[in-house]
Amino acid sequence: MKKKAFAAIIGVSMLASMGTGAFAATKLQEIKAFLNPEIKVQVDGTYADLRDVNGNAIAPIVYQGANYFPIRAVSDALDVAVDYDEATKTIILGEKVDGTSIAKGFDDMYHTKDPVQTTYKGKDYKEAFYDNASGNRNVSFMLYPDKNYQTLYLQIAAVGGDLTDFTIKDSENDIILKAENVIKSENGLVTVKVDIGGVEELYIYGSATKDTAVFIPLTTSYYK
Fold first, then answer.
1. H/E stretch holding 84
2. CATH of span 100-223
């Protein structure tokens, strides 16, 4: 709640810094402003180390009595996803209205488009992660939301046996975001929801027995 209030307060006075595409607009107006490195920011009582995409420390711009911060730096401090829609010239904070399938850019040896393996209970999902390797094993793959999304909705089914110790981890910071003791085969296709605001990389893993296959439909698992 504190983070949401903080975002609402400073949101009216932020300077958008979303890359060169945002500055190609024709309605830019030149202004005279100042940098003020004395201004500090606290988030939930802790001083935030605001930095730009290159890791440089941020000093707010002071213009007509208001302090302006790069929105990317503030969103990182609040663990809120931020993205820029070039077509509509819109900065998007938090969860997007329309989801983005994790199939986009997915790269793993168990990525398949074979209808035999992408079909679950009579429905063909077109693309899937399908691990039916032999033997007791660790099942794992990586996802790369690149801090562009707030939430991951991951659909998963264990086939022929249960998947245990299922975990979704912030790989870059070694933080467990979600853990399920067991994904039961009898429950069919389940959806796991996890907050991924500010996360660059996700490591997803679990343990499967020799009789268990793991099915994840990529087209209906998505980021928002």
1. strand 82-85
2. 2.60.120.260
CATH 2.60.120.260 in the chain, residue ranges: 100-223
Tens-digit pLDDT profile for residues 190-224: 999 999 999 999 999 999 999 999 999 999 999 99
Beta bridge partners of 180: 166
Confirm if 171 and 180 have CB atoms less than 8 A apart.
Answer: no
Calculate the CA dihedral of residues 88, 200, 194, 154 and round it to 10 degrees. Answer: 80
In whole angstroms, give the CA distance from residue 199 to residue 218.
Answer: 19
Place of tokens 């679990």: 206
The position carrying tokens 């940098």 is 35
CA nearest 139: which of 115, 116, 161? Answer: 161
Taking the model in full, what pTM does it have? 0.67
